[in-house]
Amino acid sequence: MEALIRVPLSKVALPDLVANYIEIKRAAGFLYKTEAEVLKRMIRFMKQTEEALPLVTPSELVQWCAKKESEKNQTASSRGNVTQAFINYLKQCDYDIDLPELPKLKRTTYVPYIFTSDEINRFFRATDTCDGYNGSLRHIISPIIFRLIYGCGLRVSEATRLSLSNIDFKKKCLILTETKSNKVRFIPFSKTLGILLENYCQTYVTSDMPYIFRGKYHYGINRSIIYKWFRYYLEKAQITHRGRELGPRLHDFRHTFCVHALHQLEGKGVDLYCGLSVLSTYIGHVSIKETQNYLRLTPEFFPSIFRPIYGYICLG
């Protein structure tokens, strides 16, 4: 029986191998967008030492996967998982490469911040009364984009990537095609938001623009810009930001949307567990289990659940 000959992994061959791997993943039905970016960054990382070290080594892979000082544990873990899956694929293709076992990193346990109704009102009062400056459209875009994130439960990336083709003004709904789960979603919006959105598009959006929201220099706006605005309006609304990793975070609007939506369903007599299934589909989750992670019961929104608990404690 012939011994298996493994091929050394050349850094020159890495771009083509990564491209083939991404193609295989997408052919299998995976969106594989974020993961593809991770592997492309890995190529650039390896390119730095290509002249001195033409072959990919296990120690370099460990260095690539190691947690950076400024990043979260979850980010480093995700990079390690994507890299490990790619290395496993290369080994199946008879490449002589291994990724040593990486240290286990604890997931950050962040408790989402649920905005109260009063805080939501103060936040939008701040966006609606913001002054413009130096050609910026912040004061025009903010009242709309934050209402899309909170009022429609959109992910920030979904809001910033909206194009004219994603909006049906007659049916008052968004048609989202670029979603995390790669599924088309139909999201209704209120009459008030529809008027804001339509007036904005008629005034500032042309048919050749890839996305409806643009920045100061006519480029599309990204998450970092939205976050900067978010922090500005928190301060204007006198909502305390507790510091890094403590929130409130921009994504907490989505958590708050889920809690508020369930509260409304409960008010209409819908069973919470049935409502959870509807909500899961609406916000684009693959399973109800994902949606459960978004929910934080608070006395303000679910008194019917908390009242018996408090009564039991008081009688205790």
Supply database-style keywords.
elongated; 3-stranded antiparallel sheet; 2 domains; single chain; hpI Integrase, Chain A; two-stranded parallel ribbon; 316 residues; disordered C terminus; DNA-binding; mainly alpha; Integrase-like_cat_sf; Tyrosine-type recombinase/integrase
Topology summary:
Layout: E1 7-8, H1 14-27, H2 34-47, H3 58-65, H4 73-92, E2 95-96, H5 117-128, H6 138-151, H7 156-160, E3 167-168, E4 173-176, E5 185-188, H8 191-204, H9 223-236, H10 252-267, H11 272-282, H12 288-292, H13 303-315
Parallel strand pairs: 1-2
Antiparallel strand pairs: 3-4, 4-5
Helix pairs in contact: 1-2, 2-4, 6-8, 10-11
Short description:
This protein is mainly α and 316 residues long. It has helices spanning 14-27, 34-47, 58-65, 73-92, 117-128, 138-151, 156-160, 191-204, 223-236, 252-267, 272-282, 288-292, 303-315, and strands at 7-8, 95-96, 167-168, 173-176, 185-188. α1 (14-27) runs antiparallel to α2 and α10 (252-267) packs across α11 (272-282).
What this model shows, in words?
InterPro entries: DNA_brk_join_enz, Integrase-like_cat_sf, Integrase_catalytic, Tyrosine_recombinase_XerCD. Residues 110-307 form the Tyr recombinase domain. It is built from 13 helices and five strands. The strands form two sheets. Strands 3-4-5 form a three-stranded antiparallel sheet, with no helix packed on it. It has a two-stranded parallel sheet with strand order 1-2. The chain folds into two domains: 7-96; 117-292, Intergrase catalytic core (hpI Integrase, Chain A, Orthogonal Bundle). With 316 residues, the protein is mostly helical. The model is unreliable at 305-316 (pLDDT under 50).
